[in-house]
TrEMBL record:
A GO-annotated cellular component: membrane
Membrane-topology descriptor: Single-pass type I membrane protein
Start and end residues of each Leucine-rich repeat-containing N-terminal plant-type domain: 49-85
Major localization class: membrane
Protein name: Leucine-rich repeat-containing N-terminal plant-type domain-containing protein
PANTHER family named in the record: LEUCINE-RICH REPEAT-CONTAINING N-TERMINAL PLANT-TYPE DOMAIN-CONTAINING PROTEIN, LRR RECEPTOR-LIKE KINASE
Gene3D superfamilies membership: Ribonuclease Inhibitor
Record InterPro entries: Leu-rich_rpt, LRR_dom_sf, LRR_N_plant-typ, RLP23-like
Compartmental location: Membrane
Signal peptide location: 1-24
Entry keyword set: Glycoprotein, Leucine-rich repeat, Membrane, Phosphoprotein, Repeat, Signal, Transmembrane, Transmembrane helix
Entries under Pfam families matching the protein: LRR_1, LRR_8, LRRNT_2
Gene: gb05627
């Protein structure tokens, strides 16, 4: 097994295109929330105490972009960002998304989120991404929304330690806490034990969260058997993928990792998308990658891999996208029917002057074949 080491590489150019889950792994909130209303349900009115809670929330926010200008009148179910169940009239979704211009995004008047949010106990979707919360910690009371299925906290300029109370959200299936575009404030976790309680989780994105002290990350993530998408890019991880006898991530389809890669990658039998680009990984590409027969997209570009490309990459019959560019790979390129069908063949291998053979114009000498 190749010995690979990782250097922390924080460069915003590589953050410009954060991982976007493929269509097969994206989970849409509409699947779990009833339509706000239909043409014959216009009589639905919001519940007064929930309207009061929303008004209290608004009072604690700054809104330079007038996102909340519709928050007036009696029927809060008609307000922007609010969705109500057409069966119970309870507010089941609150979306306070920030705007592209951070200076126009929602902020906090008193430096913290108003606990009036707890008046919306029936929320199934809470979306606070992209706001300008100026380094305020994620509130512990978020762990009290026991019906929550989707939680979006990404790039909202939260700061400080992640509250372990998030682990109380036992129904959560989608958790996005990435801070890829967040420069001024850092969120971190020194102990991810809380994460192991989210056993229903399908999608997890902690990209650019500081996990350098969370030595248990691989052990904890391995307790999430329903996980389909895992994004841990730029997290300063210390350990690699769990050892083969303990790998339980049998549902994992998409892995975007900024950390060590080992032969254990071959045990992720359901993996469809693997992105390990810009990792400063060295050594040789593990042969076991060729054992992940479900793999459709493989990106190992912009690393320091050397040696030959594993011949068993030609076993990846489902592969439709491959990027091995800008490494130190040498020798002939493996032949195989599937590899020959990939689009833009030459660009797959560009930046590896030691490679030779079709589809490259460089002819291999006998010692390189």
């Amino acid at each position: 097994m190749a010995v690979l080491k990782i250097l922390w590489f924080s460069i915003l150019t590589i953050c410009c295109l954060p991982f976007i889950p493929t269509q097969s792994t994206t989970i849409e909130p509409a699947h779990v929330v009833a339509s706000t209303r239909s043409s014959n349900t216009s009589s639905i009115r919001c519940i007064p105490r929930e309207r009061d809670a929303l008004l209290a929330i608004r009072a604690g926010l700054t809104d330079p972009g007038n996102y909340l200008s519709s928050w007036q009148g009696e029927d809060c179910c008609e307000w922007k960002g609010v969705r109500c169940s057409n069966r119970t009239s309870h507010a089941v979704e609150l979306a306070l998304r920030g705007l592209a211009d951070v200076n126009s995004s929602i902020g906090l008047r008193e430096g913290r989120l108003n606990s009036s949010l707890l008046g919306l106990r029936h929320l199934r979707i809470l979306d606070l991404r992209g706001n300008n919360f100026n380094g305020t910690p994620i509130p512990k009371f978020i762990g009290e929304f026991k019906n929550l299925r989707y939680l979006y906290l990404s790039n909202a300029n939260f700061g400080g330690q992640v509250p372990p109370q998030i682990g109380n959200l036992s129904k959560l299936i989608y958790l996005d806490m990435n801070s890829i575009f967040q420069d001024l404030y850092t969120i971190y976790s020194t102990d991810l034990a809380w994460l192991s309680r989210l056993t229903e989780l399908h999608y997890l994105d902690l990209s650019r969260m500081d996990l350098s002290a969370a030595v248990d990350w691989a052990h904890v993530v391995n307790k999430l058997p329903s996980l389909v998408t895992l994004n841990l890019r730029f997290c300063m991880l210390r350990n690699g993928i769990p050892s083969p006898e303990h790998v339980n991530l049998t549902s994992l389809e998409s892995l975007d990792l900024f950390g060590p890669i080992t032969e254990e990658i071959g045990k992720l039998a359901a993996l469809k998308n693997l992105n390990l680009s810009w990792n400063h990984l060295n050594g040789t590409i593990p042969d076991s990658i060729g054992d992940v027969h479900s793999l459709e997209s493989l990106d190992l570009s912009h690393n320091e891999f050397g040696g030959k490309i594993p011949a068993n990459l030609s076993n990846l019959l489902s592969l439709t996208r491959l990027n091995l560019s800008y490494n130190n790979l040498t020798g002939g390129i493996p032949s195989g029917n599937q590899l020959q069908t990939l689009v833009d063949q030459a660009s797959i291998y560009i930046g590896n002057p030691g490679l030779c053979g079709p589809p490259l114009s460089k002819i291999c000498s006998e010692e390189l074949i």
